[in-house]
Write a structure and sequence with these properties.
Elements lengths: L2 H16 L2 E6 L1 H7 L6 H7 L1 H5 L5 H4 L7 H17 L5 H10 L3 E6 L5 H4 L7 E2 L3 E8 L8 E2 L1 H7 L25 E5 L11 H12 L6 E6 L10 H10 L4 E5 L14 E4 L3 H5 L8
Parallel strand pairs: 1-2, 1-7, 2-3, 7-8, 8-9
Antiparallel strand pairs: 4-5, 4-6
C-alpha cells in the first residue's frame, strides 16, 4: 500500500507489542468486511420479493423496521437471523484479530448483534453487546423484561416461509409466550428494546476499566461509524483520552478521523480491517 501505510503498520505493531490491555471497539464495518452482506440489492430482491415491491432494497434498509405485517416482517427477520447469527463461521479477519490479542488482557465492546466475536473464540465474559443479540427475541410491547432463545422458533417457523414471497403464512407466526402479542428480535431499535439482560456486560466492562490503572492500554476501534457513535466510537475515544499513556488505533474506511487532542497518541487507517489486521486478504501485524 505504500511506505506511509507500512510505517503506520509498524507503529501499530509496536504499540500492540508493548500493550498489556486492549479494548476492541467494533461496529458494522467489521462485520461487513468479514463478508456479512447488507447492501446487495439483487440478492435481496430475489429472496424477499414482497419487501422489494414495498420499496425496501437491501438489508440495511430493513434495520429498525417493525411496522410491517408480522408474517412479512418475521419471514424476513427469521431468515436473516438464521443466516447471520446461526450460519457457519470461518472468517479470517476475526481469527486474525483473535491471534493478535489472545495473550493480552482484552475486552470487546461491539454494536454488532451477530456474536461473531464469541463464535470465533473471544470469551463471552469479556464482551459487552449493548445492542442485543439475534439469538434472542422479546415481546414488542414489551409486556416484561424477559427475552427468549430464538433457535426453537427458527426450527418451527423457518420451514413455513414461502420461498416465492419470503413471508410466513398469514396469521401463522410466533407470538409472545406471556401475552401472545407481537414479537421482535432482541436488538435495539426503539424504546421497546429489552436491554436489561445486556447490562451485566456493561458492569463487567466498567470493572475491567477500573483495573487499568498503571497498565499500558491500546484501544482499537474498527468500523464504528456516526449513526450510533455513543455506543462504541465515543467510548473508545473517551477511554483513550482519560487513560494515561493510552493509544488509539481507528480503522474505518468511511469515518477514519480521530479527535484533535488524540492525534499524538493515535493512528488512523482509512482502509478495510482485513488490510490492516491481516487474515487471508492482508498483511499481518
Amino acid at each position: 500500500m505504500g511506505s506511509a501505510f507500512d510505517g503506520k503498520i509498524q507503529r501499530f505493531s509496536a504499540w500492540l507489542d508493548v500493550s498489556e490491555s486492549v479494548l476492541i471497539g467494533a461496529g458494522a464495518g467489521l462485520s461487513a468486511d468479514a463478508g456479512v452482506e447488507y447492501t446487495d440489492e439483487a440478492s435481496f430482491a430475489k429472496k424477499y420479493p414482497r419487501l422489494y415491491e414495498l420499496g425496501y432494497r437491501n438489508k440495511l434498509m430493513m434495520m429498525g423496521v417493525t411496522d410491517l405485517p408480522q408474517e412479512l416482517l418475521l419471514g424476513y427477520y427469521l431468515s436473516h437471523a438464521a443466516e447471520v447469527r446461526f450460519g457457519p463461521v470461518d472468517m479470517p479477519i476475526y481469527k486474525a484479530l483473535l491471534s493478535l490479542v489472545e495473550k493480552k488482557d482484552t475486552f470487546v465492546l461491539t454494536t454488532n448483534v451477530d456474536a461473531l466475536f464469541v463464535r470465533h473464540g473471544f470469551p463471552v465474559e469479556r464482551t459487552f453487546t449493548p445492542q442485543g443479540d439475534y439469538a434472542f427475541y422479546q415481546c414488542l410491547t414489551p409486556c416484561s423484561q424477559d427475552i427468549y432463545p430464538l433457535e426453537p422458533v427458527l426450527e418451527e417457523y423457518l420451514p413455513l416461509i414461502d420461498k416465492q414471497t419470503g413471508s410466513l403464512p398469514k396469521g401463522r407466526y410466533p407470538v409472545c409466550p406471556r401475552c401472545s402479542g407481537n414479537i421482535f428480535l432482541n436488538v435495539r431499535g426503539g424504546r421497546w428494546f429489552v436491554e436489561r439482560p445486556w447490562m451485566e456486560g456493561e458492569e463487567r466492562l466498567n470493572r475491567w476499566i477500573s483495573n487499568l490503572a498503571g497498565k499500558k492500554l491500546l484501544v482499537i476501534d474498527i468500523g464504528s461509524g456516526l449513526s450510533t457513535p455513543m455506543w462504541v466510537r465515543w467510548p473508545c475515544e473517551r477511554l483513550a483520552k482519560l487513560t494515561q499513556g493510552a493509544h488509539l488505533v481507528r480503522i474505518n474506511i468511511d469515518y477514519p478521523e480521530v479527535p484533535p487532542d488524540l492525534r499524538d497518541r493515535s493512528l488512523s487507517f482509512q482502509a478495510k480491517a482485513s488490510e490492516v489486521l491481516g487474515g487471508d486478504r492482508g498483511p499481518n501485524l
